[in-house]
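Q: Hi! Curious about what Valine--tRNA ligase looks like structurally. Here's the sequence.
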Amino acid sequence: MASGPPPLQSKRVSGRGSDTSKLTPVTENAQQQPPAPSTDLPTQYAPADVEGPLYERWVERGYFEADEKSDKPPYTIVIPPPNVTGSLHLGHAFEHTLIDALTRRKRMQGYETLWQPGMDHAGIATQNVVERELAKEGKSRHDLGREAFVERVWQWKGESGGQISGQMRRLGDGVAWSRERFTMDEGLSQAVQTIFKRLYDDELIYRAERIINWCPRCLTAISDIEVEYQDDDGELVSMKYGDGDDTIVVATTRAETMLGDTAVAVHPEDERYKHLVGKLVKLPLTDRSIPVVADEHVDPEFGTGAVKVTPAHDPNDFEIGQRHDLPALTIMDEHAVITAHGPFQGQDRLEARSAIVAALRAEGRIVAEKRPYVHSVGHCSRCKTTIEPRLSMQWWVKVGPLAKAAGDAVRDGRVKIHPQEMEKRYFDWVDNLHDWCISRQLWWGHRIPVWYGPNGEVVCVGPDEEPPSGEGWRQDTDVLDTWFSSGLWPFSTLGWPEQTESLAKFYPNSVLVTGYDILFFWVARMMMFGLYAMDGTPPFHTIALHGMVRDQFGKKMSKSFGNAVNPLDWMDKYGSDALRFTLARGANPGVDVPIGEDWVQGSRNFANKIWNATRFAMMNGATVDGPLPDPSKMSATDRWILSRLNTVVAEVDAFYDDYQFAKLSDSLFHFAWDEVFDWYVELSKTTFQAGGEAAEVSKRVLGEVLDVTLKLLHPVVPFVTETLWTTLTGGESVVIADWPKDSGFRDAGAEREIESLQSVITEVRRFRADQGLQPGQRVPARLTLDGTPFATHEAAIRQLLRLQPEGDAFTATATLPVAGAEVALDLSGTIDVAAERKRLAKDLAAAEKEKAQANAKLGNEAFLAKAPDHVVDKIRTRLAKAEEDIARIQAQLERLPQG
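A: Let's find out. The predicted structure is below.
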């Protein structure tokens, strides 16, 4: 279930908080303000003016590059290589935000950090793109020939491919651009050929005729990951095979495949058909008879308990055929056109389906027809054509020993999967993995390095070997599945099979950050190949899995649904930081992430808040010059915020180490907005106004808090924090600044003192709002603070709550006992007490009526017996709300002046 961030909102209660939009320094006399201290910050934050130049400066200065000769400990993450045909979508933006946050923090912590960029050649997708371009010219790839077509694809790649690189820069991706790789470049091609040769020599790659997923449009085998399943309206036809006592009924959604049936299968223990096992039955519309076989694969409870067996066109039927030595008859060509001799020859599969059902109906062979019959059907993810299972000669990887090694690496703790509950899904996959079909009938891709001789010779050629030549020798025409080369990504990008310095320094990767949707495909293949090629060393220490981005209602984003979002649009409108922060706030491990535009807008407001509050603080003297003053010279407010700051540093570190991006983002949001900007800055104003040594101490503490807070925020919101931090500190770049450390400073007494002070201010603010007082409206008040932890904070309390001195004519018309203090307010002349009592009495009557109605329903046993659970829960919620309203209104009435 999707779980994401609510719209951003600080915890401050309604009423006046910090107003950082009015950027003027605090002075003792607001009528005679001196010129504001200079900052180099514009009055408003404009992301479009900041982000592009900042990113180019980072790249030019080499901040994201990695040095294999460095003595620093390594931290390595590879980018899940996007398709060269692709563009940045929200899923990319989400994943890249998380990886960038991790690498930026580790870089600040002193690690030699490598975020390895690159792109995948995306065999089918890229070939389709270029073929469509050729079609506009009235040509096909066959008009060009293989060599010219591949050259044309390289030309397209150079001119149009890889637009995602520019979009990654827009997002702020801190990748090592000088190390960018492509799965078809020379070095990676050598790696592909090397591992193919080793696997072949170890008899872990072989060629065999098996059932594969075939796309009649793309004319190639495709992998499981390239098959998209959707519910289609089809038909379920039950038809009668044999005659008389030898009649047996089977059902199918693909009637056309009956032309290739070579048996009917039943369960060995099914009493209904025991008399038929071993007999031959007549196959309708043909001159063939086929046997009835007993196989435990058949479910006797499903349908009639008898299934038709078409070994050449169904994977389960193929296995049955293998067990019973049945012939496999291919009845369709690569275009899904019927090739079986007879009246249906030359018809498309769907055309033949209708014709065959009509012919069976005419012979009285149709027992039942159900249409529409909704069932799950596989489609090619590229062209949406219905997949055809097809018996075909292909190249395969024998995955048994490789998959076992991949499972053992997680079981023995060498690799950790996060969140841990995803381990079961991983084991379910690798423990039951079928051999992997790696050949594709394409021209774009890594061509299989196998040559066939004129006398049946088969030679696999390594990267440093010369292929056989002479008359009759030819290379295999197929290319390798894209996942074959991307499975080598963690080490091929570092120079393998050469034993490079980069490989020694940066392998294995520290963590892989990727979606749970490709756990079975890309992740499993990297595990198998990494362990095989790197002498049992897995490709990464941790697999951190995240969910999918969905719309704000939890629905999958899709152009067909009309809810797909181009992240560039939101970055243009709100800034890259706003998008990044929204995505990070929704990133709970392994859980889908809903996102809506209003959430991005809320994050933009947060970026503006950081900007305005930091600028405001700097104009009022916040400084990072010199060491922090001794705590003995600090106020309780100073000690409180430093204590909270260190707690947050420790908290954020723990969340990062546990990949809890949502929690760390939420922690930083509430600390920055609620505690620093809405409380500390406001509470310090009276100190600033008073001047003297206390003011200088608080200005230095404020500078320290901003320095550390901006560093903590930087990995998630890099652009705004870079601009503010460099202006505040004069430092070169926060990208290379030291990551904050928990100094260990805690002051529980100061925290209790300020928490008590906050409760007083919050409660009085709430009362003022309940009474309809404007935030800026001043009210005479008498404060009794003796004996409270916050007795020395009267000036701050009066300033924040707009409370005037009581004066000679003061009359306490409302008294609030809060946290051991007493706040007496003179509301005479500020509100119409009689009108307010009347309004509250009306609200109270409505709440009591609601409570009575809810109690009546919940006390009705007949109603409770019949009502659905969600209806009863709704009424209980209404009752709780009514009781809460009654208590609140009664408290307001009690606080109103008498008379």
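A: A fun detail: The radius of gyration is 36 Å.
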